[in-house]
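Subject: for your reference before the review

Hello V.,

The reviewers asked for a structural picture of the protein, and I figured it would be easier to keep everything in one thread rather than splitting it across files. Below is the amino acid sequence we used in the manuscript, unchanged from the supplementary table.
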Amino acid sequence: MEVNPSVPAKTVPEFIAYAKANPGKLNMASTGNGTVPHVSGELFNMMAGVNMVHVQYRGAPAALTDLLGGQVQAYFASTTVSIEHIRPGKLRALAVTTAERSEALPHIPTMRDFLPGYESSLWFGVGAPKNTPAEIIDKLNKEINAGLADPKIKAAVANMGGTVLAGAPADFGKLIADETEKWAKVVKFSGARPD
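And here is what came back from the structure prediction:
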């Protein structure tokens, strides 16, 4: 979660207090209805008991431009999108939304430090068509995990603020099921709909 430096809050608790004192007056950028930045912000609204106004953009560049310009006050962008604006202080990161602190921004606390149970991560995975033979799935999994273990790949991902998560196909299936259940509650709460 990053904010424009004009926002007086320097911490998540200060931001929550500021949002509660100014209901409906803070704008939250996203890259569109139902996107990760949108539902991450709605999860924050739900858990913090605040009401930021959702403002959708056609992509991260436009959202970042308006956040930098102060037209919106908050954005739940992935670290990879905003890190180059956070490092020089053009944006103020209040928290990372991942379960653990970012290696690229170790001084930034996690959102769950302030809102226990909060976690929102943008993740990517590799899938295969239904009925793909198990031996092919196992070979793909082994090769992908080997690539993800490469120190150069891990370093490049970490430098952008990301984390490599290798695992077994069953782990990925459980992640998908858990994330589907979690985000269905947020979508219902917020009324988020894809455009």
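For the response letter, the relevant points are probably these. The mean pLDDT is 92. The first strand starts at residue 2 and ends at 3.

Happy to draft the paragraph if you're swamped.

O.
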